[in-house]
Amino acid sequence: MNRILNVKADKTLLADGHEVQPFIGAQPFKDLILKLPIKAYNAIFTPMGRKSLYYFLKKCQASLNPDYRREGKLVYQLDNGNGFVLHRGNHLSELVFLEGAYEPLETMIVSKTVRRNDVVLDLGANVGYYTALLDRLVKPDGQVHSFEPGEGTFMKLSDTKKLLKLDRTVLHPKAVGDAVGSIDFWSSTSGSDAQQNTVKNLSLGRYLRHDKVQATTIDAFLAESLTQQSPNIAFVKCDIEGAEPAMLKGAQNLLNSQDPPIWLMEHNRPALVEHGASSSDLLAPFAGYDVYYVQLCWPPSVMASAQAHKWSGIPDELPDECNLIIIPKRGAYAKRADSLRLAKLIP
To answer: How far is Cα 100 from Cα 300, in angstroms, rounded to an integer?
Structure first.
């Protein structure tokens, strides 16, 4: 019988010089057994764990769908009948597909607010959910200007435009802030294109990519791109991960114009803090507006309430994460609030 001379982590050496490879499945199986209680605890008692478990179960359910199993991008219909594109490997895109809907109350509000032939902006367009919605609403002669600085995300946004034939949309691979030039940009490489930011923070995760991207301001863009004969900006959707106050500093001409637009803007208190800002900084430019909010839900297909809530005017009373519907009290677009009240989407 051979005598064992040495045991290493990856092999066993016998006296006759032969090497015996261990059972390679043993250690991973042991690791799995040890991690199961931790995974089970997280899946039950932590919000992120519950989200991960929900997402896993939804993907298992979707795997029965032959269209989902097919390689490549998939054009499909959402529950509301609007078309969209599934980009595999992108967490947000897959989640919208698995749910069949995304921010339904906000979607209805935008659909009642934006009119044919409007010129609108989508700041932080990601893979293009709102861009696709807006393109449909502004036809036949309106225009959508969509901004997305993340290189990988911009490629997916470009695919969305091409596959859905968004012929009223112009794409801009730029960030929007308070100055024109080149800025730092960090993005997660884990598949979640929502995790990208102009500041490096823990929420981006461990695996990051750092780039320099081009940035502009709203006022500079409008001065360069829109002629005197062009219509005013009727609507702005903005979700730029806490950089909203900086963007507003560069949009003073738009904010103070004769016909200021309606805004759909994310309020994310932790993200604002990461940018050295606060809820007050975000809301201060809108002192002459009516502000409503919709609390963010998980999953994003859930409607927390049948209508948006009127903001009390106290920044601390806003939920940490919510979408703001901001309607001017003057100008050409102020009266569009009437259609939202008629549809009982705002009080």
So the answer is: 10
